[in-house]
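Hey, resending since the last one bounced:
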Amino acid sequence: MTKGTIVGARGRGRGLLLAGAAVLALHALLIDALGTLRAPDPPRPPAPAMQVRALPADPPPVASPAPVEPPAAAPGLRAEATAPARRPSAARPPAPARSVAAAAVPKPPPAVAGPEPQAVAEPDQPQVVPAALAQTVAAAAPPAAAAATAAPPTYATRIPPPATLRYELVRGPFRGSGELRWAPAGDRYELSLDANVSGLSVLMQRSQGGFDAAGLAPRRFTDRRARRAAQAANFERAAGKVTFSGPTHQVALLAGAQDRLSWMVQLAAIAAADPQRRVAGAQVALPVVGARGDAGVWLFRCIGAEAVPPGPGASGPLDAVRYVREPEGSHDTAVEVWLAPSYSHLPVRATMRNGADGEAFELRLREARVGS
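The structure tokens again:
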């Protein structure tokens, strides 16, 4: 090989080295330029890292039916929050803290829906009274009493002794007989009314029950009319309601409530216990329930003392106290009753009429046996 050839080869090798160095330098410049000229990141909201540092050490558990343990913080998160911030390089802005927190903290478990809140009944709720009864109660009681209670007042009573009263029965052109039998025995009673016309039974009522602080406390009332099946009202005192053998509805059982037969003896017991209830203008309000689903508060107004004309077989007029119950509607029951002090204030005369055009059902005393 000649000397010129050797020199030429050395020159080409040196040129390749210089070219390679130039290429590397150019790549370095491009990389540096890209790092410097890269478009800045879009503006972001305040770094969530501040929010992470503001969280309490032990966050409260998520509300759920069963306690849920809160997720533990990721290792190193608390140290990163308290360590001094690193100085960003001149070539690149610091990485957003949000991406670090998102990568370090696992998502909390989804909230579990708890049970729906249940309404809690207020204690000592007043007794609920049907609307039909409430209107009558408001008329029966003084304004202050009507506002203070939802039920009519109760009264002192003096229960009459056993008695049997026989009446003449009058209804329109028909004449017949009736018998009222009152049989108290210990803490229970039985009461019956039978009415006959020409030997045929036209009315048979039975009331059975006991006694409480308000007087008579019926438990079952049955009512049978001519050519009709018997129907009953059951006074379910433990449940506080009255149910019926026919109608499917029920009514509230109020203190002092009576049936369509026991009210006669209850009114007598109230009149016997309190002379002020026998003064003209005095009032007595009695809840009365029938066997066919009817219920209402019967307001009796005292008219005063009256002499009752003698009935067939009676020896003479009887001194009595008259009470009137005005009907509440066109088909309601109007009542007049005369209570005789000489017969423990039991009724010696009574008239009942259903509706303005209904025929009066009247009982006139013929004879009575009281106390045996």
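The longest strand covers residues 295-308.

Sorry for the duplicate.
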